[in-house]
Design goal:
Largest sheet: 4 strands, mixed
Helix content: 25-40%
Order of helices and strands: HEEHEHEHEHE
Structural class: alpha+beta
Strand content: 5-15%
Strand order of the largest sheet: 3-6-4-5
Radius of gyration: 16 Å
Shape: globular
Length: about 200
């Protein structure tokens, strides 16, 4: 798929997610370490680049209600393995986990091939059904994380629908922070838990 089509797809998914979050009551998140921030609507070239902020020693950490990201260059389960981005795309639909940046439901470039592969497989087999499970790391309140997990699952479902998969073949559910893939209270564990899993049903 061309980068122009993906840009349009990402913009539609972000707009749909942001429209849905206005009615969601969000619990206050737990305090966390300062992180880098970026515009929640950035979708153009170079939008993945984060702008570092100066942490304030006396102010609380940024709430999860703002879309932020951390540098996963050394901690992401994909980025930690050279060539993993290519593998994620070429192995689809064999790969079934999409990882997200902190407090984000935007599908990252390295997973576009994976999503496209699953969409083609589903569109080619109308009898197949898939459930997309959204998950978060442990930081923040239960209600907030359930809402964020739902946005992550919804973003994949909407992306696949835009790629030609009928809505009746897909279901999005959220488990929030209730089913961590990794234990621990560091960025390595958190990065593995910020995910959506694609499962046959």
């Amino acid at each position: 798929m061309s980068s122009k089509k993906w840009a349009v797809l990402v913009a539609v998914v972000i707009a749909a997610g942001l429209a849905g979050c206005s009615s969601t009551k969000i619990a206050e998140p737990a305090a966390q370490a300062p992180v880098e921030t970026r515009s929640p609507l950035a979708t153009g070239p170079g939008s993945a680049a984060a702008t570092p902020t100066t942490p304030a020693a006396t102010s609380p950490a940024a709430p999860q209600s703002k879309v932020t990201t951390v540098d996963l260059a050394k901690t992401s389960p994909v980025a930690a393995n050279p060539g993993a981005a290519t593998a994620a795309g070429s192995a689809a639909p064999g790969q079934r986990v999409v990882f997200f940046d902190y407090d984000s439901f935007v599908i990252k470039d390295e997973f576009k091939g994976l999503v496209d592969g699953h969409a083609k497989a589903l569109a080619g087999n109308r009898g197949q059904r898939m459930v997309v499970e959204g998950h978060t790391d442990e930081r923040g309140g239960r209600e907030y994380n359930l809402a964020l997990g739902q946005k992550r699952a919804d973003s994949l479902v909407k992306a696949m629908e835009l790629l030609g998969v009928p809505a009746n073949q897909l279901e999005a559910v959220s488990f929030g922070k209730e089913r961590p893939a990794a234990t621990g209270q560091d960025e390595t564990a958190w990065a593995r838990n910020r995910r959506a899993e694609l499962k046959d049903r």
